[in-house]
Amino acid sequence: MTAPDQDERRRPSLFLERQSYRRRRLMDAARLLPLLGAAMIALPLLWPDESGGAGAVPMSAAIVYIFACWGILILISLLFGFAARRLSAREKDEPEAGKWQR
């Protein structure tokens, strides 16, 4: 025997909504971006230098690589910013009443 008001107090689902799930995954990817950048910029340290002889990579190529990585990281962070702004705008447009309905 359940009271009619007990159905109204039903707990929300444990699963996340799609928009908040996507926003959280985007935030996780943005948090990993500095680690990716550090790995990409540290990669030239593993390249053979000119004292090694035949397989040497010139310093100018390493500098161009570092600036290319820097530019790519800037573009990726811009994309993350635009995506986060778009997701937050969608969440503001949705009414609060329909968020927890099944």
What secondary-structure arrangement, pairings included, does this model have?
Layout: H1 4-8, H2 18-42, H3 59-93
Describe this structure in words.
- It contains 3 helices and no strands.
- With 102 residues, it is an all-alpha fold.
- It has a domain at 58-92.
- It is elongated, with a radius of gyration of 24 Å.
- The two termini are 22 Å apart.
Beta percentage is under 5%
Overall 3D geometry? elongated
Number of strands: 0
Major β-sheet annotation: none
Q: Radius of gyration from the CA trace?
A: 24 Å
Summarize the helix and strand pattern as letters.
HHH
Brief descriptors of the model:
102 residues; single chain; mainly alpha
In short:
The protein has three helices and no strands. By secondary structure, the protein is mainly α. The radius of gyration is 24 Å and the shape is elongated.
